[in-house]
Protein 1
Amino acid sequence: MSTTLQQAAAAPPRANAITRRRRRELLVGAVILLLLAALPFGVSDVYAQNLIILTLLYAGLSQAWNILGGYCGQISLGHALYFGVGGYVSTMLFVHAGVPPVLGMAAAGIVAGLCALLVGWPCFRLSGHYYAIATVVVGEIGYLLFLNWDWVGGAMGIYVPLGPDSWLNLQFRISKLPWHFITLGFAALTWIVAWVIEGSRWGYSWRAVKDDVTAARSLAVRVFPSKMAAAAISGFLTGVGGAIYAQYVGYIDPDSILAGSFSILIALPAVLGGVGTLWGPLIGAAVLIPVSELSRSYLGGSGSGVDLMIYGLLIMIVALARPQGLVSLLGVRSQAGGGDGRAS
């Protein structure tokens, strides 16, 4: 019997302990949210503000990937497609139809979620590394499609029209403070979605699928619908993140929003922090994004690749010293691996 399903069957005697743990997680999450909300008021440097915004954005994107890759065990290397689709949908609706980006984000998430379902329909019939390779191929097809699609600007890309500061249009030229709260809200949304899923029947089913597909199927877990549901939620949240990014940078093209490197960057914080955990993507992003941006800013201009060497060395050290991710330093076990996530 699948380890995860055995734990689900033994849930009643442990219900009180699990409830206390989940309440504690929610309390810790609320405290961290308040601390992060107060953070920008003590930071006046624009570069540091930008660094915090990108870190929060990638924490949310990585948590969205973690829902599919961590909890359900479907390692996607093509999430840049959903990220890019979200950015293009929101931007094109704003440019051609005048739809405010606040509303465009919802459309971006829906279209990206549908794309995830379209990708999942054939690809989930594959398993293991075959699925991962298929997502790379699909992501590259999407990149080439947008690169040669004149209506969306092709290789030249498209600029977001500038207007007065507005929450409705997500345009803030005077201060970066609103962007801090927008990306913080996005990161909090993905975290709470993961928290709800983790303790739900869906969460147990998804972890069972990851543990042992055959055992899960023999115990009436609907494997294919489970994968599709995880893909839709992950794609939706990634598309919303893409819409936020497009408005933040004010310009998108295939290389800046659909390149395969984005798929890796979206997944790496969760892998570095700990897949299948609530805190892994946040911890991973808090380490990986600042190191990446700072090394690129101060060492990337040399042309010697020192920034990339530092970046790669960090990932190698964590992979060798903490294969369960940085979150294991806190004594937290991966939910995706069948543990209950309590401190060791």
Protein 2
Amino acid sequence: MSMLTERMKTWRHVFKLDPNRSLSESALEKVCTAGTDAVIVGGTDGITYENSRELIQRITEYPVQCVQEISVESAVVPGADGYLIPVVLNSSSHRWVVEAQHQAIRKYGDWIPWQDVAALGYVVLHRESKVARLTESRTEMESADLTAYARLAEFLFRMPALYVEYSGMYGEERMVRAARQGLEKSRLFYGGGISREEQAQVMSRAADTVVVGNLVYQDLEAALQSVRWVKETETNGASQDD
């Protein structure tokens, strides 16, 4: 089990920052010192080595875990605290399930710090989102399908976490709970559309880890408050560690 996998077990609230979007130094300082458990650097489009390195270097000036989510192999920045490898389980293209990962490992496998790497299984559910279009995700599904994806992630692929991703849209609690039903030890991430305390509380009860991204750029003060909204809410049926 990787060191990153162990650290992920403690994450309750995470900010996700996009290298292709601008954020002032004052705003970044507030984000990194708000009490979040980690900052994930990643995005869907416009991701380059240069903008990823710049953002990661800025974040590492603060006492917070900085993890890079790898969506473009040429944008990998050495020196992050860990690396998340997304696997889009409901993609209709095998590129986003295994091909891109295979090509990256073929090229860089001898230098990958495996102790700092973890796979993150995605189920993308917002049909109109950039990530759904890019990955050709099959977003129409029943709750039983999501439970099955969760079991696939944990029991077949042995992934440490499953991410239910609504990407810019607030999701359905019943679908998040359907994913919960399929998990025992793997961690359940939720991300998408949280802008109010009530929404954060609902998803905090359903999931182990809540990811806040777009809100940082839309309403910084609400984003900072989301740390408290999430951490003061107890989970219902969250994954239990060994």
